[in-house]
Design brief:
Layout: H1 2-8, H2 21-30, H3 32-52, H4 88-102, H5 105-115, H6 121-124
Length: 140
């Protein structure tokens, strides 16, 4: 009953009652093997768990068509065509033209050739990346 009475009076109950850096260091030195093995086990478990997860990739893009592009040579240099100096209808026509160019068959064909998509069976069958297209004669 004595330690409880002293602790209630505001005095520490014993030398281990307060956590000091020296006390913590002694505890670590006494159990260093257990701490090392626990750290190693947790690190290995997290590593294998992370490597075993299915990889999920997500990409997004923003296409910005700017009718008033920056002028790195200064304001004094005249551009060939000033597309941003028109009215609402001129800007609208500019944007529609840019979208038609981006959606054109020529741009699509160059993209397919550059990325080699015409040789990718999974792409042609609209399968997720990394899948192999099954042979045509088999039913799946």
């Amino acid at each position: 009953m004595e330690p409880l009475h002293r602790a209630a009076a505001g005095e520490p109950a014993g030398p281990e009652a307060t956590l000091t850096p020296l006390f913590a260091w002694r505890a670590v030195r006494k159990r260093w093997v257990l701490l090392l093995l626990t750290t190693l086990a947790v690190t290995l478990a997290v590593t294998f768990f992370t490597l075993g997860q299915k990889k999920i990739y997500r990409a997004s893009t923003t296409l910005q068509i700017d009718p008033t592009p920056p002028r790195p040579l200064g304001r004094d240099v005249q551009s060939v065509v000033d597309v941003g100096a028109g009215s609402y209808w001129a800007n609208r026509e500019y944007y529609e033209t840019q979208f038609k160019i981006i959606q054109s068959r020529r741009i699509a064909a160059e993209t397919v050739q550059t990325l080699g998509l015409h040789r990718d069976g999974a792409f042609l069958a609209n399968l997720p990346a990394g899948w192999i297209r099954p042979p045509v004669g088999e039913a799946g």
